[in-house]
Amino acid sequence: MSFPTPGSIIDIQSYKHNGTLHRTWEDTVILKGNSSVVIAGNDRILVTESDGRQWRTREPAICYFNAQQWFNVIGMIRQDGFYYYCNLGTPYIWDNEALKYIDYDLDIKVFPDMSYILLDEDEYNLHRQMMNYPHELDYIIKKNLQDLMSMINQRKGPFEPGFIEQWYERYLEFR
Question: Where is the binding site for Mg(2+), in residues?
Answer without folding.
Answer: 87, 103, 105, 107, 120, 123
